[in-house]
Amino acid sequence: INDGSSLESLQVVADPSLEKRDLTFGSAVEVQGKLVKSPHRMQNMELQAETIRVVGPCDIWSFPLKMKERHPLEYVRQFPHLRCRSNTLGALLRIRSEATAGIHSFFQDNGYVHIHTPIITSNDCEGAGELFQIGESAEKTHFFSVPAFLTVSGQLHLEVMAGAFTHVFTFGPTFRAENSQSRRHLAEFYMVEAELSFTESLQDIMQVMEDLFKTVTSTVLSKCPHDVELFHKYIAPAQKGRLEQILKHKFMIISYSEAVEILKQAPQTFTFKPEWGCDLQTEHEKYLVKHCGEVPVFVVNYPYDLKPFYMRDNEDGPQHTVAAVDLLVPGVGELCGGSLREERLPFLKSRLQRYLDLRKFGSVPHGGFGMGFERYLQYILGVDNIKDVIPFPRFSHSCLL
Amino acid sequence: INDGSSLESLQVVADPSLEKRDLTFGSAVEVQGKLVKSPHRMQNMELQAETIRVVGPCDIWSFPLKMKERHPLEYVRQFPHLRCRSNTLGALLRIRSEATAGIHSFFQDNGYVHIHTPIITSNDCEGAGELFQIGESAEKTHFFSVPAFLTVSGQLHLEVMAGAFTHVFTFGPTFRAENSQSRRHLAEFYMVEAELSFTESLQDIMQVMEDLFKTVTSTVLSKCPHDVELFHKYIAPAQKGRLEQILKHKFMIISYSEAVEILKQAPQTFTFKPEWGCDLQTEHEKYLVKHCGEVPVFVVNYPYDLKPFYMRDNEDGPQHTVAAVDLLVPGVGELCGGSLREERLPFLKSRLQRYLDLRKFGSVPHGGFGMGFERYLQYILGVDNIKDVIPFPRFSHSCLL
Questions:
Q1: Which of A226, A241, A290, B46 has the fewest CB atoms lying closer than 10 Å?
Q2: What GO molecular function terms would the record report (chains A, B) (predicted)?
Q3: pTM for this one?
Q4: In 10 A of CB A207, how many CB atoms?
Q5: CA-based nearest distance A38→chain B, Å
Q6: For an interface test with A, which of B2, B62, B97 has the most A Cβ atoms less than 10 Å from its Cβ?
Q7: B359: chain A residues, CB-CB within 8 Å
Q8: Rounded CA gap, A266 and A248, in Å?
Q9: Which of A320, A32, A48, A307 has its CA nearest to residue A155?
Q10: Residue B45: predicted pLDDT
Q11: Which portions of chain B are predicted below pLDDT 70?
Q12: Nearest CA in chain A to B118
């Protein structure tokens, strides 16, 4: 029997007379008996049953999970209401729960104020990305009196809060209406975002990103060793032991300009030719991470023209950059993105009035970042498809349950 | 100067020569100097400034917050991007953050697995309540291939998970497209929901509700005593000291039938005449709470015909009831609602196929509840309007920022 608290089951030893016809795989049982030291080497304890009651029988013929079978992730994905009972998804969900608690603790322990940034917003953070519009159906024309969307980022709302509290964070769902069937994209996904006032340089932001990653990952490794082992044994054998190594070393830092030079000198040819001023593509990110030894790599100082208005102008030249940073990790690509924010009013003129107000009334140098929570789980566990690290995946043409 | 970590400011003592023209209320400053014991009785320490730098000036003429003024909550509500800098909202947001951490810790410490139940769902939990539909705008017809909505409750998804883990919880945003301008309703609000397998009776559910309330409230009282004091001093003087009393006693329990009897014998007349089989109205809830001495009261065993299909049939009669419970609190009304779920397949026939599957494959007696997080904050702090206990309130005709 297994109560879902770990991969480990408790062996119940019962006299044949206690056997029930409906005592099948998948059924829910209540067993009373004595917990004793087991004579077998495979288990420490076992339960000598005195009574067995089948609380909820399970029809094994129609139950899609089979005993002692390792079902492929694609197979169990068809059963969003039952796949949590498989070993792999059970382990994943326990890890996800511990990682969630670890993220809250990390920020809490470091004096951050948690903010519930809104899900519905009248504001499109980056002007980029496909938005889900809401509250405009026939009978509810303009519920909010203005066009309203599902949030793509809590950043602007966190910036508001960074004017009142020194450090703030949010951890909630964000949305993209992208018609993508990629193994890295979902329509609904979770993002950790933080904003820090009185930053001095990008170093301040990178330090928090790295500390967050390492603290949460250490927590997961120590709280769910067997659950993590399952992934590193059966799903991503190449990950075994790598994570522990990575936690011991400082993450690498290269500039965008250095990254472009590395790509230009690469022996391989890319579909997108690397060129200063162009966005790094997935193939480029992969190569950079490999080039650096399959470890997490910060890429800093991106071209001014590539990045949104709120990122801080480095006032350099002739290759004009902003103080932006991306954290690239093996197998996943971009895990975190952040920047110093432009705190100087003249640099922001002709922008949003409210955004300007924040600069007008006691502006401070600040910066922040976001980390995709599903991508984080994909990376540490080596899970190929993002649909397997979220309880109920939503993507184009799919919204089961 | 104040860094947002508490209501307490640090007094900076400076020579007039350090005075800057732009050193105004609301500006962001960097002060270097010596932290010394203060000669004044009002403060323990003070900072003897050696240098003062105005990092971000603040135009006091247009800044809507004024020094040493206690602005009404209605006034600051107009400035969603600046109100967090007022004492009251600052205190509220610190309390909200501690309560959030307290909720996660409570469940974590009691062995619950945290689940991110989906925001977008193809499933209308109760068939009740107005739904926000999404992904059906002109250019994105049927993004999900099926009608999709913003969630009204994570209950069904938690029930799925309660089949894999013994205890699960979620804490996230939920939505109602109600055209209400009530001080108790928002279009977007936060709900804590829990689901417990192997329940024996409603008592199991009530115990968790009561423990959750008391544990989180104790945490808030001990972590933010000054912030809570601000509310109990200026916003809701009647609350002062009451909460500490309530934490010491068991919550009261009455049945729905008893509640109706109490209402029938009330000396006052109600707009809605109390009658067995009719829903309790706000006026009824208020009276019941007053009748019980302005303390939290559980009302249990509601009429079968009033409640949704998934609540467990008590198989009683002639007044046929289900094992449902509401927790009523002073000033707010319904804070939590929960029930035992109908785990018996025959009672659920002709319902949702997936819901039936959960009963078919290893069904167990279980139950759960939800607690409105904003209503919780309204109650413990005595805040009249729900719009003042959430960072960015959304309601009909309003979606600022």
A1: A241
A2: asparagine-tRNA ligase activity; ATP binding
A3: 0.93
A4: 13
A5: 25
A6: B97
A7: 56
A8: 28
A9: A307
A10: 93
A11: 124-129, 135-141, 350-356, 358
A12: A392
CA nearest to B231, candidates B390, B90, B373, B102: B90
d(CA A341, CA B59): 21
| Contacts with A396 from chain B: Cβ below 8 Å | 143-144
Contact A173/B119 with Cβ under 8 angstroms? yes
Half-sphere exposure (Cβ direction) of B373: Cα atoms closer than 13 Å = 28
Chain B residue with CA closest to A55: the answer is: B364
- Confidence at residue B361, expressed as pLDDT on a 0 to 100 scale: 80
B269 min Cα distance to partner chain A (Å): 36
Closest CB to B81: pick one of A28, A117, A160. Answer: A160
Q: B120 pairs with which residues across the strands?
A: B150
CB B160 within 8 A of CB B125: no
pLDDT of the residue at B346: 80
**Chain A contacts of B62, Cβ < 8 Å?**
360
State residue A124's pLDDT score.
63
Peptide bond into B72 cis (omega under 30): no
Among candidates B62, B144, B364 on the partner chain, residue whose Cβ is nearest the Cβ of A397 = B144
Distance, CA of B8 to CA of B227 (rounded, Å): 10
Backbone angles phi, psi at B144, to 5 degrees: -95, 5
Low-confidence residues of chain A: pLDDT under 50: 125, 350-351
Q: Does A93 touch chain B (CB under 8 A)?
A: yes
**Contact indicator for B99, B373 with CB cutoff of 8 Å:** yes
Contact in structure between B55 and A366 (CB atoms under 8 Å): no
- The correct answer on CATH 3.40.1190.10 for the domain covering A85-389 is no
Name which of A183, A115, A387 is nearest B118 in CA terms. A387
How confident is the model at residue B3, as a pLDDT? 94
* B-proximal residues of A, 123-152, CB under 8 Å: 123, 130, 132-137, 140, 143-146, 148, 150
| A364 at B interface, C-beta within 8 A | yes
| Of residues A101, A148, A177, nearest to B114 (C-beta) | A101
- C-alpha distance from B120 to closest chain A C-alpha (Å): 8
Instruction: Determine, for residues B113 and A132 on separate chains, whether the beta-carbon distance falls below 8 Å.
Output: no
Residue of A nearest to B132 (CA): A135
Within an 8 Å CB–CB cutoff, is residue B188 touching chain A?
yes
Chain A residue nearest residue B115, CA to CA: A97
Question: Which pLDDT belongs to residue A140?
Answer: 52
**Type of residue at B323:** A
On whether any CB of chain A is under 8 Å from the CB of B272, the answer is no
Residues with Cβ within 8 Å of residue B49, at least 6 apart in sequence: B12, B13, B14, B15, B18, B31, B32, B33
Q: In the numeric block, which tokens belong to residue B62?
A: 């247009």
**Those residues with Cβ within 8 angstroms of residue B378's Cβ, 6 or more apart along the chain or in another chain:** B184, B331, B332, B384, B386, B389
Per-residue pLDDT, A352: 58
> Residues B312, B315, B319, CA angle at the centre, nearest 5°?
105
Where do the structural domains in chain B lie, given as residue ranges? 1-63, 85-389
Instruction: Of A361, A167, A364, give the one whose Cα is nearest residue B55.
Output: A364
Asked whether the bond before A57 is cis by omega within 30 degrees of 0, the reply is: no
Nearest CA among A59, A36, A63, A60 for reference residue A47: A36
What local confidence, expressed as pLDDT, does residue A346 receive?
80
Beta-carbon contacts of residue B48 (< 8 Å; ≥ 6 apart) = B13, B14, B33, B34, B36
